[in-house]
């Protein structure tokens, strides 16, 4: 006999936990199934940013932002390949979700500019704090139960064609659970599936693998069996900014280029506009000889190191021996094994162009997207970090509509099936704005729960009252 629930959620990262808390506030009986021994998934590996606009934290720091500018930036970074309606829903719901997260105990610590930002809008969290807080909030409701180390094997339909049953394995035994209102897939992408990466992204073969341990594409296969369509496969890209020794446990990541550093290949030559999305930078980096590149910066940029920050704690990486330091550009070139004359000429040309007001080589005139002004690299000592591309998250996945319903190839909802987080495609398009991944996970996790519970009479009143 099957266990009976209103909503079943597959995956316990930020998207799944937000869906669980949202559903629990509407008196729904919820089951969350997570195949790993701990909750959090790839959300634990995130860069700690959530992209929101118009918050009180921005206002306290004198930052003017708006949902309109946020949406505009996302569409520009995505090169217009995003599903515009999804981005617009993000814009409409993001401020409310920020306040909702705060009301549920999630702590935001600072606002920083990062990839794709016209103004600083990366609201920093500690993923462990956010995840444990949402998990405890779900448990405290009394409406949510969790099954950890449980692997979902198949989804099954009712006689009327509605997706309603989950078959999962735990401790070598097979279980069935039935959802009366909906099943929500929040189980991440496929960054740890070599089979799927080889099939859909062979261009990323050289990228190091850092994605969440459980991100093997299980949810995609569960949905594909029932006719789900997929979006954004042509735009699969790696994430630039990692030291080659990085791993899931040790991220060793720096985005000094968004503070003004330049990026060069092993010949000492620049090859990209450093203000672009780090996804697009990663694509160009993988084209370089031996896939090798370096970030080059000076003491002024080093002074902007932020202790504990996932992207800007340069001092910590230096203390770990991952960053080289030298009094001259020539000495720095020797340390990292690239031609001295080439690197000196590259830095000199860049400095001259920046002082002249125009980067003649690659058109860089900002630090990131439309924010910030580059200045010359000339304050010794100088620094370099070998940097590579990582397969951190796939950002291509199931086709969904604005209600988080999974769609088939004819753009029709698959009744009873919803998706949110990394598993959902169509949102980012050809690029990626920092913070929008965790942001969309929280926003559309809530949307999925609301939509599932609005689908039948029993919960419509609760949904309309929220």
Helix content: 25-40%
Q: What proportion strand?
A: 15-25%
Main sheet summary: 8 strands, mixed
Shape: elongated
Uncertain stretches of 5 or more adjacent residues: none
Rg from C-alpha positions? 23 Å
Give the CATH class of the largest domain: Alpha Beta
Distance N to C terminus: 34 Å
CATH architecture of the largest domain: 3-Layer(bba) Sandwich
Rounded average pLDDT: 94
Task: Give me the number of helical elements.
Answer: 14
How many domains in all?
2
- Helix-strand makeup class: alpha/beta
Task: Pick out its properties.
2 domains, single chain, FAD/NAD(P)-binding domain, eight-stranded mixed beta sheet, Flavocytochrome C3, Chain A, domain 1, 19 strands, 466 residues, alpha/beta, six-stranded mixed beta sheet
Give the SSE layout.
Blueprint: E1 3-10, H1 14-24, E2 30-34, E3 49-51, H2 56-60, H3 67-77, H4 84-103, E4 111-112, E5 122-124, H5 127-141, E6 144-148, E7 151-157, E8 163-170, E9 173-185, H6 194-200, E10 208-209, H7 218-224, E11 230-231, E12 239-242, E13 262-265, H8 278-285, E14 293-298, H9 299-302, H10 314-319, E15 324-326, H11 329-336, H12 340-355, E16 382-391, E17 397-398, E18 405-407, E19 413-419, H13 436-453, H14 457-465
Parallel strand pairs: 1-2, 1-9, 2-6, 9-19, 10-16
Antiparallel strand pairs: 3-5, 4-5, 7-8, 8-9, 11-17, 12-16, 13-14, 14-16, 15-16, 18-19
